[in-house]
Amino acid sequence: MKTIDELLAAGVSGKRVFVRADLNVPLSDGTITDDGRIRAVLPTVKALADAGAKVVVASHLGRPKGAPDPAFSLAPAASRLGELLGSAVAFATDTVGQSAQDTVAGLAEGQVAVLENLRFNAGETSKDDAERGAFADQLAALADVYVGDGFGAVHRKHASVYDLPAKLPHYAGYLIATEVDVLKKLTEDVRRPYVVVLGGAKVSDKLAVIDQLLDKADRLLIGGGMAYTFLKAKGHEVGISLLQEDQVPAVTEYMERAEKQGVELVLPVDVVVSRTFPDLKTKAPTEHTVVDADKIPADQEGLDIGPKTRELYASKLADAATVFWNGPMGVFEHPDYAEGTKAVAQALVDSDGFTVVGGGDSAAAVRTLGFDETAFGHISTGGGASLEYLEGKTLPGLAALED
Ligand SMILES: Nc1ncnc2c1ncn2[C@@H]1O[C@H](COP(=O)(O)OP(=O)(O)O)[C@@H](O)[C@H]1O
Ligand SMILES: O=C(OP(=O)(O)O)[C@H](O)COP(=O)(O)O
């Protein structure tokens, strides 16, 4: 993989450099609640701007349906990037249309522009190679060079991640280089016990990862929205909790294999349940109770791991030499359901092992719940991306940066 240092050494002054970043930041009412992913790409953007490049930053945000949707605009991320850079950042109100073309054409050397959400275009995420390729051609027309630095999206075979780099000279940015360096350590000679903690809401994506992790980890702790498919597979009522019904057979098989292979697969023994999903904007207090994991009422949903589970998971993390954690243990954005995530974060802080936290929301959780980032071995900007890297998969966005 050629890195941005080679590009800088060759000179980029006056060149239009397309930076595929991951600015998929959490937003509440249009306000960014954690800007970690924007700060993570700053070294790359700054270096290019300082070297006189015309920097075109592009990203997705959320999962809009292939058409413009103001709720998913990158405008707030563009203005935050400008604040962090200490200079104005131009914003194109479309991704490859007139606004993008005019904005890029108007860039002076050393200036930065952000394009509107890549996923406002169906070609970005299309499964059809030709449709993705056509969109990548439109993106390629906006730049002379490609720098891949959106680590959180390198597991996606999307136009801006996979197809575009093939059309332009391509380099890895500083963030991708750092992320890969650290995660490599977890695939080479990992110190044991190696404990993986999985939670979050992207259940269908992440359940599949367990297949490979069973051959790698010594212990798997399951929380967050992931847990209920396991509890269902054990024959428990899960009420209206997040559930990936179609993956119940696969999860049953994982539990059997874990047993056979001597991998400890640990599930919640109690959960915090409520009749309604909390209001994350007002954070108004909710009615909630703690129940044993096999006693979830049919009309309620599990929104956090309970106090007994928090203690159990802390004890399962205490002797770990290596920990990888992706996915909050509960709906941490609301104080009534943040304690499980806090407990796991605290267990990592207390650990003498090498600890890695991965994922947009997991990283945001650690910071917004008041933990000191330096107390962790590494905070990765990618959840799904780092999990798939640890699985040993070829990631489209990394393969595309290789020659
Ligand atoms: N029990 C649960 N039910 C519903 N959502 C949950 C539950 N536990 C955690 N979540 C949600 O999971 C989201 C993060 O999931 P995910 O995107 O998979 O994590 P990451 O971005 O760290 O990879 C958070 O917004 C959190 O509110
Ligand atoms: O937030 C992200 O991933 P993560 O939640 O696994 O960390 C990335 O921006 C990728 O987003 P996607 O899962 O909608 O492709």
Short description:
The protein is α/β, with parallel strands linked by helices and 403 residues long. It contains 17 helices and 17 strands.
Structural class: alpha/beta
Share of helical residues: 25-40%
How many whole angstroms does the radius of gyration measure? Answer: 22 Å
Largest sheet: 6 strands, parallel
Number of helices: 17
Mean pLDDT: 97
Strand content: 15-25%
Low-confidence stretches: none
Shape: globular
Bound compounds, each kind once, are: adenosine-5'-diphosphate, 1,3-bisphosphoglyceric acid
Number of strands: 17
Question: What is the oligomer described by this structure?
Answer: single chain
Strand order of the largest sheet: 5-6-4-1-7-8
N-to-C terminal Cα separation, in Å?
7 Å
Description:
There is one protein chain. By secondary structure, the protein is α/β, with parallel strands linked by helices. It is built from 17 helices and 17 strands. The strands form four sheets. The chain has a six-stranded parallel beta sheet with strand order 5-6-4-1-7-8, with helices on both faces. The chain has a six-stranded parallel beta sheet with strand order 11-10-9-15-16-17, sandwiched between helices. Its main location: cytoplasm.
